[in-house]
Amino acid sequence: MQALKKLKSAKLTRRLAVLSVAAASLALAGCDDNGGDPRTQIGANPELPKLQQYLMPPIRIAKAVGWGKDETPTVPQGLQVHALATGFVHPRSLYVLPNGDVLVVESNGPKAPIYRPKDIITGWVQWFAGAKAKDENRITLLRDTNGDGVPELRTVFLDHLSSPFGVAVVGHDLYVANTDAIVRYPYEDGQTSITAPGTKLTDLPGGPIDHHWTKTLLASPDGSKLYVGVGSNSNIGENGIGAEYERAAIWEVDRATGAHRIYASGVRNPTGLQWEPETGKLWAIANERDEIGPDLVPDYLTSVRDGGFYGWPYSYYGQHLDPRIVPQRPDLVASAIAPDYALSSHVAPLGLAMYTGTALPANYRGGAFVGEHGSWDRTPLNGYKVVFVPFSGGKPSGPAQDVVTGFLDANNHARGRPVGLAVDRAGALLIADDVGNTVWRVSSAPSSASPRPAT
User: Which pLDDT score, from 0 to 100, does residue 44 have?
Assistant: First the structure.
């Protein structure tokens, strides 16, 4: 009897999803969901068109199909790409240990409750796009002893975690940012698995809604603090302002006590944190809000000021008011900081790596690689690639350059979607691909080599 009830419930959910998607399609009548040239929204002064509002958001999804045999992403002349390892279950982030071992965080978000038809649509979109994979919630270790890009060892490093994302090592402590807490584990250089129980350093905002579940993690240069990206619990606060307590923020956590403070706020979903090598400033990537048009709001890369407020939910890209927010907060909007650099709208940046190595060609040194997971609500699709933002004097100094592409095939189906980034011990760029279930490795090509396109 219980099984029958579950089956009927599943059928009802599917029917509601179909009806909701149909309603969303009807709501698009008379609305323009075709985006303009994304290049006009890259850089310090992006074009910001007039906003649109929808009864239901437009849905433009790249169906997940995976990589065919011998297919790889495409890279420019001077680079080469190959699979470091395959067969993962939704790899989301990467971390390189002090001895060069690579940690691959395989995770997915906790099951979200359904409060409104939009929640059903969101779940359906995520499933169709390949985001609702089996939940392994573990960390796998890869060891490439001789640096040839072929791991000799692959082992489960940590298991039975709670939607993990961020990892940081300070001395003999390894920290994992689960969706609901930072947990500390004892760590010795070179160990291939951790079986010791972890100790909770601090709670993080989690369920029951947990709209943005990924918690990125970065240690301070002196190791005394941890910085945590905590995303909002909604698109624009529709779950109530109480659900946003200490969210849409970057936390600073004292490593000795677990005490925290809000380092910066109004950042809708800070998904990657890095220290800029020349100035030592904290930089972040952020996913901005949806449902006000295909070209609003640009996702961004920005330096982060201690105590700074970046607008969410009351305003976007500085002091541009979002009329959907009632009541408004003009006092906060007056202080809202415009981001340093727009990446264009709905690219969904989920990985950030400042490049300080010397193994890649010289034009990639000193800048930032950004993994763009890709859009679900605009035409044409945007993102689905890794870009490079050049820096000079500690600031972006030119347009973003496509570096790793080919994640979309000729039919706009997703072979893969880039997420977390890291730089390995040899200076190669590593890319977690959570649809292709692969970690890609991008390195300098021999001078006689040509680009390897996806076929």
Answer: 97
Q: At residue 91, what is the residue type?
A: P
**Half-sphere CA count of 134, side-chain side, radius 13 A:** 6
Helical residues (DSSP H) of 35-183, grouped into ranges? 117-128
Could you report the per-residue pLDDT of 240-278, keeping only the tens digit for each? 999 999 999 999 999 999 999 999 999 999 999 999 999
The structure tokens listed for 288 are 């901005």
Sequence-distant (≥ 6) Cβ neighbours of residue 268 within 8 angstroms: 212, 231, 232, 248, 286, 287, 288, 289, 312, 313
355 in any annotated domain: yes
pLDDT band at 19, cuts 50/70/90? Answer: very low
Domain count of the fold of the chain: 1
Structure token digits, residue 1 = 């009897």
Question: What string of DSSP letters covers 313-339?
Answer: TTEETTTEE-TT-SS--HHHHTTPPPP
Q: Determine, yes or no, domain membership for 202.
A: no
Whether 402 maps to a domain, the answer reads: yes
* Nearest-angstrom CA–CA distance, 16 and 10: 10
Strand partners, 227: 218, 252
Task: Say if CB 40 and CB 48 are below 8 A apart.
Answer: no
pTM for the structure as a whole: 0.90
- Find the domain containing 356 and state its range: 69-87+346-455
72: how many CB neighbours lie within 10 A of its CB? 21
Cβ-based neighbours of 433, under 8 Å, separated by 6 or more: 91, 407, 416, 417, 418, 419, 439, 440
Residue 243 sits at the vertex; the CA angle it makes with 292 and 23, to the nearest 5 degrees, is 40
Helical spans, DSSP H, in 56-132: 117-128
Residue 11: predicted pLDDT: 41
Question: Looking at the domain assignment, is residue 384 inside a domain?
Answer: yes
SS3 251: strand
Note the pLDDT tens digit of each residue in 349-407. 999 999 999 999 999 999 999 999 999 999 999 999 999 999 999 999 999 999 999 99
pLDDT exceeds cutoff 80 at 309: yes
Cβ atoms of 296 and 346 within 8 Å: the answer is no
* Of 327 and 125, more confident: 327
